[in-house]
Amino acid sequence: MEQFAMNPRIYRNSLTGFDFYHDFDAYTSLRNQWTVVSSKYERRISRFLDSITEPTLFIRYISSDKDAEYVNGNQGNINQTLQAYCRDNKIIYIQDINNSIKIPSSFHVVRDQGDTVCRAPVAACQELQAYLESGVVSDQVRKLNMDTRARFISAQGGLPLLVRRVWKKVQKSICQPVVHERICSDQ
Questions:
Q1: How far apart are CA 82 and CA 88, in angstroms?
Q2: Residue 95 is part of which domain span?
Q3: Is pLDDT at 161 greater than 80 in this prediction?
Q4: Which of 26, 68, 76, 100 could cysteine-pair with 9, CB 3.0–4.6 Å?
């Protein structure tokens, strides 16, 4: 893991190139945070794998030609992997209209001005909105997702989130970031 010099709360896995923007605290050493963060990911992965045994619609936003090229070359493997958990799993692609490499059957959007993506693709693409409203996601699955989300929100409670936000502000004002031994030069 490498830490960004300009923003010490952001880490990059040097093996995979994945950046972690929201998982680490700049004021605690990586060693002291690793167990908590890795167990959080293990729980999330386990819940995710359990949930995709039910029909799931995956949505992938393609913002670059590199991503489009990857998807075009691996679409069969992507579908096979997703449908290994449930044969009714589907994936749709939302693609920036300016990409020169097109993905068949993708929905096209215009990226927001001054941004790298379209932040509200459903509102920006009537074809995508019609597709989603056409019943591709059944009412039963939609209700299950809403019930699950409501239970999760009520289980989290509002106060702990407020306390965490206040504590982060206090930390920023009185603590110095911990600098990790490996620094990532680009951001």
A1: 9
A2: 56-136
A3: no
A4: 26
* Alpha helix stretches (DSSP H) within the chain: 30-51, 65-83, 121-124, 126-131, 139-156, 158-174
Q: What's the pLDDT tens digit per position in 104-135?
A: 889 999 999 998 889 889 889 999 888 888 87
- Quote the number of domains for the chain: 2
Query: Beta-carbon neighbour count of residue 24 at 10 Å?
Result: 22
- Same structural domain, 2 and 40: yes
- What digits encode the pLDDT tens for the residues 73-82? 999 999 999 9
Nearest to 66 by CA among 44, 95, 30: 95
Residue 120 and residue 76 share a domain? yes
Same-domain check for residues 82 and 129 = yes
Query: How many residues are listed for the chain in this entry?
Result: 187
CA distance 17 to 40: 20
Q: Which of 106, 121, 136 is the last residue of a domain?
A: 136
